[in-house]
Amino acid sequence: MRINAIGTIHTPFKEIARMPIQPSGAAGVRGEIVLLPELVEGLADLAGFSHIIALYQFHRVERCDLTVTPFLDNRPHGVFATRAPTRPNPIGLSVLALKGIRDNILAVENVDMLDGSPLLDIKPYVPEFDQPEQVRTGWLELARDRARSMRSDQRFG
Amino acid sequence: MRINAIGTIHTPFKEIARMPIQPSGAAGVRGEIVLLPELVEGLADLAGFSHIIALYQFHRVERCDLTVTPFLDNRPHGVFATRAPTRPNPIGLSVLALKGIRDNILAVENVDMLDGSPLLDIKPYVPEFDQPEQVRTGWLELARDRARSMRSDQRFG
């Protein structure tokens, strides 16, 4: 399957090291999504949504590791049990707060991806579709609160 | 960017018509994800999570519409304000309940995609990363409860 960038995500993070781990570690961090101008028609009515799901390419990742030691733990885990970028298909997913839209430019908050990340899709976030109840999170149960304060290092660079 | 299927999702839905609209309309519907056997190492520790995010290809969709009239409304909206499959990059996203893993096969519930959908990624669902608060959902505010009972038709076939 061939997929093409439909835009670019701009964030304050120019380097793989010292980035927030997840949107929960990037609360309030502002970024901008610049959609290809020829796709602007597809944004109609999106401004009524407070949050979007952004899919993007981990464009600086060049390898795939089936076992990774994520930032939030010191033990190795299967890559599909983590959000590490070194996945078979290096697609990232972040839920972002949508603050405004002007023409083909979206002002967003909680950005946790590298500056220049190629945008692959924007979907509206809908709790009825995307928010299950009674969730268990395995190895992350103990580790997840660390996401708010931790920063990345070079390990996936 | 070239991405390759890493497995296949099996569901009861063989036809584009009369499918559930979203996981919320597919509560309890069982399916199976068959991961490529050579990737099974990547599943380590995933069984501790109750829910996963599955990314997959809308493999029966051959066109892109920037304006769509979704199943849940009778008015047109920009495609990025909907979950319609006729997107520039036809990537679907569903949050599924993970019921068990045996070797390279995952038993899942709440499947809302076509049988045979090519799997692109599995991520653990983590409320701290994926569950924002104070969400507004625009045009869907009035329409979203319909997702539980509605079924698809041929419009995106």
Features:
homodimer; 157 residues; six-stranded antiparallel β-barrel; two-stranded antiparallel ribbon; 2 helices; globular
Rounded to the nearest angstrom, the distance between the terminal CA atoms of chain A is 25 Å
Top-tier CATH class of chain A: Mainly Beta
How many helical stretches of chain A?
2
Largest interface: A-B, 67 and 67 residues
Write out the CATH superfamily name of chain A. Answer: YaeB-like
- The multimeric state of the shown protein is homodimer
Question: Topology as H/E string of chain A?
Answer: EEEEEEEEHH
Per the principal axes of the C-alpha atoms, what is the gross shape of chain A? globular
Radius of gyration of chain A: 16 Å
Q: Strand arrangement, largest sheet of chain A?
A: 1-2-7-6-3-8
Poorly predicted runs of 5 or more residues of chain A: none
Largest sheet of chain A: 6 strands, antiparallel, barrel
- Name of the CATH architecture of chain A: Beta Barrel
User: Mean pLDDT of chain A, nearest integer?
Assistant: 92
Give me the secondary-structure category of chain A. mainly beta
Count of extended strands of chain A: 8
Helical amount of chain A: under 10%
CATH topology of chain A: Elongation Factor Tu (Ef-tu), domain 3
Structural domain tally of chain A? 1
